Amino acid sequence: MRLQKIRKPIVITTAFLFHSLLIFHLLFSPVIIILASNKGIVNASFFSFVLIFLLSLFFGRAYCAWFCPGCGVQEIVGFVIKKKAKYTKARYIKYVIFIIWVSAIITGYLVRGFTKIDLSYGIENTPFERKLLLTLGAGLIIVPLALIFGRFASCKYICWQAPFMILGKKIRDRLSLPGLRIKTNAANCRKCNACTLKCPMDIQVMKKVQCGEIVDDECILCGNCIDACKSKALFYSISTPSKPLN
């Protein structure tokens, strides 16, 4: 079974629903949660980001590829833009953004405290025009970056959610906990490089096949490499790390 025939319809549908219903900003906006924290309000996006982190302790970054509305936009863009964003040091920009962003949220709660839970904060009293701008804001960032740098540029370089999952995955691997991974069978590898060519995150997959597992912070477990490999050298596995971390 080709995984992309399952994954792409799911993630594209997610993107369509979240954007058309104007709720993307309510659950994932990096702006609304800062505004909420400065009023001491625990809003819906607070729980969304906590949930994303907790899920990453088992699923790693699979959410990115399978359910993230932003990834759905990337897949739609991919019908037109074929160039991939390069695997460069620019990927560290997202960590700088993450640190500044999380610091702003924490500061807000330290100053205001936790006064109440309001899951609808940011949607009930927000004018339609602002909802539209906040919801479509992700697309207004994703599309230009894809045009300039290639597909998945925003995921790779500036995504404010990715560090949550990378941190969760690192904790999981440090503790050698079982989780969803892409394992490899080096003996089956024909060194055709098809896996690397199909990787949307521009990871040098073939070079990692010899390690027994695809270990890379940018791996979103999309399964493109698994589909591309005709010799079945890559496969999903619920398991512990191939090599325990020291």
Number of domains: 2
What is the overall silhouette? globular
Widest β-sheet, arrangement of strands: 1-2
Quote the beta fraction.
5-15%
* Sheet with the most strands, sense and barrel status: 2 strands, parallel
First-residue to last-residue Cα separation: 37 Å
The tally of beta strands, per DSSP, is 4
Low-confidence stretches: none
Instruction: Estimate the helix proportion, in percent.
Output: 40-55%
Mean pLDDT figure: 91
What's the helix count?
Answer: 13
User: Topology as H/E string?
Assistant: HHHEHHHHEHHHEHHHE
Our Rg estimate from Cα atoms comes to 19 Å
Instruction: Please identify the structural class as seen in this structure.
Output: mainly alpha
What secondary-structure arrangement, pairings included, does this model have?
Layout: H1 4-20, H2 24-28, H3 32-37, E1 41-42, H4 44-59, H5 62-66, H6 69-77, H7 93-112, E2 116-117, H8 128-149, H9 153-157, H10 162-174, E3 179-184, H11 194-198, H12 205-208, H13 224-228, E4 234-239
Parallel strand pairs: 1-2
Antiparallel strand pairs: 3-4
Helix pairs in contact: 1-6, 4-10, 6-8
Transmembrane segments: 12-35, 41-59, 92-112, 132-150
Organism: Paenibacillus puldeungensis
InterPro entries: 4Fe4S_Fe-S-bd, Electron_Trans/Redox
Descriptive key words:
246 residues, mainly alpha, Alpha-Beta Plaits, 2 domains, two-stranded parallel ribbon, two-stranded antiparallel sheet, 13 helices, 4 strands, 54% helix, globular
Folded structure, characterized:
The protein folds into two domains: 164 residues, no CATH class; 65 residues, Alpha-Beta Plaits, CATH 3.30.70. Helix 1 crosses helix 6, helix 4 runs parallel beside helix 10 and helix 6 crosses helix 8. The model has no long low-confidence stretch (mean pLDDT 91). It starts with a helix and ends in a 7-residue tail after the last strand. The strands form two sheets. The chain has a two-stranded parallel ribbon with strand order 1-2. By secondary structure, the protein is mainly alpha-helical. The chain is built from 13 helices and four strands.
